[in-house]
Amino acid sequence: MLDSYLPFFNELWAALIFFTLRLGLPLLFVFGVGWLLWRFFAPEAVPVKAGVPQRERFSHFVMQIRELPAVQLPTLTANQILALCSAILLWIAATGFLIARFFWGLETATALSDAMPWGLWIAFKLSFVACAAAGFTFAAIVYVFRLEQYRPLVRTAILIGLIGYTTFIISLLVDLGRWYNIWHPIVMWNPHSVMFEIAWCVMLYTAVLYAEFSPAFFERLGWRRMEKLMHAIVAPLVIAGVVLSTLHQSSLGSLYLIQFTKLNPLFWSPLIPVFFFVSAVATGLALMMLVPPLNARLFGSANRQALLATLARPAAIILGVYFALKFGDLLVRGELPRLVTPTAMSALWWLEVVGGIVIPIALLLTPQARINPRVRMSAAGLAVAGVVLGRFNIALFGFSD
Fold first, then answer.
1. How far apart are CA 12 and CA 189, in angstroms?
2. Do residues 83 and 124 both lie within one domain?
3. CA 266, CA 345: separation in Å to the nearest integer?
4. Are residues 35 and 146 both part of a single domain?
5. pLDDT at 7 over 60
6. CA angle centred on 304, ends 67 and 215, rounded to 5°
7. Are residues 312 and 364 in contact, defined by beta-carbon separation less than 8 angstroms?
8. pLDDT digit string, tens, across residues 135-178
9. How many domains does the chain have?
10. Is the same domain home to 177 and 260?
11. Helices (H), 233-365
12. What share of the chain is helix, strand, coil (3-state, %, to 5)?
């Protein structure tokens, strides 16, 4: 008799789990973020439990953070207030989409379907990872190849990598249909899957990036012991990070090797993993010629134009290797006639190669690139845009033919 009730209890248990994952966890996340914001902006208003020492209170830690000069809110101009209000409106709109996505699924917030299971998010995520390559590129330059003159750029490069990979993970959490199963690769191993290797490399490398950047955080807080400890282990962390990032930068391209019947021949290639790795290195060098000058202009940080000028020639060389690989691949596979056929795919290929590779190489090899920061930044911006367009061509546009 009890056996007849087992299906009912199993369905009830499944319904409770489903309700918790679809409604309980998103609500907990929203309330948790609100609670943290309340504790940050009004720590003095938080009730204090009796018997808890002052130094152990979370509010005391928040007050220490708020007293740091970097956390002090600046006096904003009218244009900055307008920009801040616009950003807040965008955040509110994004929050609405996120609530719709997590409460009612991907179908409500996107146009994804069984026929189109991958959308814009995939191309954006591939672009985030390519831009995040600045971290492992400069870590390898300084710690592996021992080019110490570039050490002042390492912290900025690691921060770029940290932002890129964190954005990648957050967007992946939003993009997954069953986002609450994101932990499965940790315990459910499938060593024959490319996605399994990517998941582990991204998890480990993101942890390494946070560990590499932690000395800057501890230095700002004045925690000297933790700062010395992290400095002592930074070398093996960097080596591990370079290996992990090298593996999964190319593995992301391996995802598209099985798409040879669906992806346009101009964009499919057995060398896609090599394309992804080489283009990531080029993007890392280009971003470091682009971000520090903008940082110096906006926030008054150190202006290292003389040091950044030395990156022009190496970036041009890497872009040249990338161009040779792409053109040589089409030549070997006999696909060059497609380049002179007037189609949307050939136009995208020429736009990527000419606008994102050839023109940046020509600009970076001129003497003006070593003298004029605007020329160098323009070339770097075109190179980054070209790599991003290349990722979109492979992840999105190439399937529309």
1. 29
2. no
3. 7
4. no
5. no
6. 40
7. yes
8. 889 988 988 888 889 988 888 898 898 888 888 888 888 887 77
9. 2
10. yes
11. 234-254, 272-299, 305-309, 312-333, 344-350, 359-364
12. 80, 0, 20
Question: Can you tell me the distance from the alpha carbon of 399 to that of 263, in angstroms, rounded to the nearest whole number?
Answer: 5
* 98 occurs within a structural domain: no
Residue 323 vs residues 199, 250, 280: alpha-carbon distances, Å: 29, 17, 13
List all residues 6 or more positions away from 356 whose beta carbon is below 8 Å from its beta carbon.
382, 383, 385, 386, 387, 389, 390
Residue 51 in domain: yes
Name all contacts of 105-111 with Cβ < 8 Å and 24+ positions apart.
105/177, 106/175, 106/177
* 65 and 205 inside one domain: no
What distance in Å separates the CA atoms of residue 106 and residue 123, rounded to the nearest whole number?
17
Q: List, as own/partner pairs, every contact residues 43-47 make where C-beta atoms lie below 8 angstroms and the sequence separation is at least 24, other chains included.
A: none
Q: For residue 134, is pLDDT > 80?
A: yes
Q: Is 132 a member of any domain?
A: yes
What are the structure tokens assigned to 340, written together? 């002179």
The pTM is what? Answer: 0.77
One domain for residues 287 and 372: yes
The rounded distance, in Å, linking the Cα atoms of 186 and 300 is: 43
Q: Which residues contact 205 (CB under 8 A, 6 or more apart)?
A: 136, 165, 241, 244, 245, 248
Say which DSSP state 354 is in: I
The verdict on 60 and 123 lying in the same domain is no
Task: Give me the count of residues in the chain.
Answer: 401
Tokens 């470091």, residue?
A: 288
Quote the radius of gyration of the chain (alpha carbons, Å). Answer: 24
Residue 23 lies in domain: 7-89
Match 């020639």 to its residue by tokens.
313
Tokens 């492979």, located at residue: 394
CA distances from 11 to 5, 177, 334 (A): 10, 21, 57
Helix (H, G, I), strand (E, B) or coil at 391: helix
43 compared with 153, residue with greater pLDDT? 153
Give the tens place of pLDDT for each residue, 229-246: 887 888 888 888 888 888
The answer to whether residue 63 sits within a structural domain is yes
User: Distance between CA 241 and CA 88 in Å, rounded?
Assistant: 35
